[in-house]
Specification:
10% strand; 7-stranded parallel β-sheet; Rossmann fold; 339 residues; 3 domains; alpha/beta
Amino acid sequence: MVLDEKQLIQVESAVVLPAEVILPDDTDYEFILKGQKQKAFDTWKAFQLSYKAEQIAARPGFESLLCLEHLRERWRKAGVVTYPHQLKVLRRVVGKMRGRAILADEVGLGKTIEAAMILIEYYLRGLAKKVLILTPASLCRQWQMELQDKFGLRFVTARRPEDWEHYDLVVASIDAAKRPENAEVILHLNYDMLIVDEAHKLKNVNTRNYQLVSGIHKKYFLLLTATPLQNNLKELYNLITLLRPGQLGSYRSFRKQFVADNRTPRNVDNLKQLLGEVVIRNRRANTQVAFTKRIVEQVCVELSETERLLYRTVEQFIRNDLFRTGNTLALITLQREIC
């Protein structure tokens, strides 16, 4: 369809152009109309795509981090201190690992801050608009507050099926996410970034946790755990394969090449090289973080009659159920949570 000058002006006034785009003067309309008749111009959609490509090309590379300057004043007011090892993690993940990594620092070295810095670096570049963070239920509120106070990102805790589609920045417990009504929605969405805290709970490929996280469509992917290896090397293999399928080959070849027994590796240098491509682990001794000396003191607390009744009731309920399943660990864990 060919537009006359009047129609062209109407189209022009109805479209909100970026500030950088300079509209033609009246003297240029003859040229534009002539070009349109000859079909010399692309569609408006093609122009938008081209403009977006130019914007992306104009962004600074990852050797220049955007988040540090962006957050400087906020961090000053909030009293946030970043450590050299955290900045190294940020640069390595966005610059060399393409946003997919296992952050396995020892406890207390700031894995949450590292993950949040990686997240906001991609967010500022327009590369992470739809983000899902899965954590244990007890940590959802902590993640929300950290991201809001220290990074200016407002995440919503999703509970209902409609929440996952409606909100772009979502934090949720993995137990809530794996409920059938929620998982069905999540698995049909495309996320720019997925972050999983306490990721060692994904060590078993047969669990619903593992299967859910494996099935989520994601571009950038961070797994956070201080204990990537707990019981045996197969659990480590499962985590690495979840993050980057094929990194360690098939399990049969991995076992043949790298496993001496369940917990003892062989060909250690080769294995370290492969792990180093996807795992970052900082130890306390190698950082500048000053830890307060811990003083452990046991305090015995007597339960009230009401508390004791609740404890015994739940204990009996679980015992009856576990008589069939034999899962003693579940009983111990639940009893601790009640306290």
